[in-house]
Amino acid sequence: MARFGNHNRLAIPRSASKMVHLTFEEQMESQKTVPPLITGDFTGKTIMVTGGNSGIGFETAKHLATMNPARLIIVCRSMEKAQESISQIESETGFKNAEPMALDLGDFSTISEFATQANKTLDRLDVLIENAAVGFNTDGYTVTKDDWEMQLQVNALGPALHTLLLLPIILKTAKQHSTFPRIIMVSSGVIYSTKISSEVIASPNIIKTLSGKEALTQGRYAETKLLNVMLVDKLTALLPQSVVPLAVNPGFSVSGLSRGAKGERAEEFKKMVVDYHAYTSEQGSRHVVYASHGGKNEEVRGAFVSFKLEVQELPDWMLTEEGKTSRDKIWNEMLEVFGIVDARIPTIVAEHLKN
Ligand SMILES: NC(=O)c1ccc[n+]([C@@H]2O[C@H](COP(=O)([O-])OP(=O)(O)OC[C@H]3O[C@@H](n4cnc5c(N)ncnc54)[C@H](OP(=O)(O)O)[C@@H]3O)[C@@H](O)[C@H]2O)c1
């Protein structure tokens, strides 16, 4: 497991809320504490969870189903997987208002089609949970049909495009209902073990370089999770206060994420589950459930919610000039790519995100 939190204490407050800074050892110790399930009431509200068929996403959806949402959209790679998940949620909770939607984050055209469909069928979106991701990739270097390294696209670029295309519905929800919709990026504690290297930052295009076969990366999975937090930072700066973007670390949890680990890697993983007090997916999902409605909006807006359901300081590197420069460059590069992929993006940026 990547060592996270292994850096100096640097107290740069991001908001007025209390923030914690945990060392790696403290984070591992924190895994011994299982956070409570914070229940809530989503009456009349619409929630969307990507990756709702497995692990943390499924358990999150199941918990939220018990909190009476008007609509719970389960997003999976196929309608069949979403339907299976819905049947299981219904049989375990009795909830009948879950609906399936399909999208493959590794295929931009399906994200565009998804947004077109969502614009027709959703009249509001109160909680968007970008949870889907891939962990171990044992297939080696894999490129999507859009010509991006698979993990980078599925974990970072795809969720960013998906979120941006859904912004008009989210903003409409805030305005029409005077509410504070949340956009949740499910990130990870591994962000404390990584950064974008100076060499990559100096390259003509950071995301293209990160996508390349050459091992200039510090670990692809961790970088994609860092990009999730960078996206939250940009959205927080550019969206009106009525929208609450935040990132969450569900903690090290047993889920489908390790399914790609084979042989020695799989054995190593089994040992980690014991040594690092892994949560079950249900326990990990409690952090995501909390992110969907817990805490005061002004305290969790732009925050990284982690162990013990507390707001944790961002990695020191993200707060450096280099960290901020790479965040801004990556944002501009993503917008350029997305503008080519989907003609709605420039309008969404111009109309909804202040420059
Ligand atoms: N488990 C941990 O220790 C841990 C720790 C920190 C953060 N996280 C984060 O928690 C989130 C949930 O992961 P998990 O641990 O619950 O893993 P998981 O059980 O493997 O769930 C991942 C979900 O993502 C979906 N997905 C994968 N590729 C996709 C694609 N191309 N398009 C759409 N959906 C796709 C999967 O669908 P299929 O079933 O079709 O593959 C699955 O539903 C991830 O963001 C992960 O980074 C996990």
From TrEMBL:
It comes from Rhodocollybia butyracea. Keywords: Oxidoreductase. The lineage of its organism: Eukaryota, Fungi, Dikarya, Basidiomycota, Agaricomycotina. InterPro entries: NAD(P)-bd_dom_sf, SDR_fam. Pfam families: adh_short. GO terms for molecular function: oxidoreductase activity. The keyword Transmembrane does not apply. This is NAD(P)-binding protein. Gene3D superfamilies: NAD(P)-binding Rossmann-like Domain. It comes from the Eukaryota.
